[in-house]
């Protein structure tokens, strides 16, 4: 096999994903500081955003159903956690770039597609952990949420997470200066999270906010998650959410297949 074919052909096949998943699982449980932040973050969001705002609003009309604002905002928190998990992918991919592990993994027979799925393990585990914590907090607060509907909603959320992890890997590959990359992330994460309908209703805001919201991929992902949680599945939004993740993975795989395996991290 020629050197340029290593990223196109793989003797490892699906074992490549399993190897990466195993590595990322070990990294997640060994990083106590990250684990602590994964616990604190959803608790703070729940106490001060979900409970704090929800206590003054009560019931709201969402589509054809009436729900408690706290449950509506709970999905908004999940949306924020999804986008925040992108930083974990960037962190893990940066380590691979900085220490030459990225080219080593490719030369070992791991395909770009395998790499993307494998490197999504770290944020996926973090998000699943946070989602379980949110569900427990919701039950303690007295919210009635069907467990099967919640599992369905989290499943859609995990597929949406792949869009952001793929985007995070792309950013890490293209931007070699970590200070510039951190600046870009800091500038865009917050607007992405709050320009989507995480805590507001689309029909209750000015037109320009709706325009911005519809340009935000998170809007379609959150709407799909809410439709699953509330038992009123909106297939079109679920399809858009899945399509965004699929396109992001395909584009990232193609870019990784062509990128130069040179360590330039600064």
UniProtKB/TrEMBL annotation:
Membrane topology term: Multi-pass membrane protein
GO CC field: ATP-binding cassette (ABC) transporter complex
UniProt KW keywords: Cell membrane, Membrane, Transmembrane, Transmembrane helix, Transport
Organism: Shouchella clausii (Alkalihalobacillus clausii)
Residues in ABC transmembrane type-2 domain copies: 33-259
Cellular localization per UniProt: Cell membrane; Membrane
UniProt KW Transmembrane keyword: yes
Protein name according to UniProt: Transport permease protein
Main localization category: membrane
Pfam families per UniProt: ABC2_membrane
One term of GO molecular function: ABC-type transporter activity
Claim: Disulfide bond is one of the keywords in the record: no
TM ranges: 43-65, 71-91, 112-141, 147-171, 183-202, 237-257
InterPro entries in the record: ABC2_TM, ABC2_TM_bact-type, ABC_2_transport, Nod_factor_ABC_transporter
Protein family: Belongs to the ABC-2 integral membrane protein family.
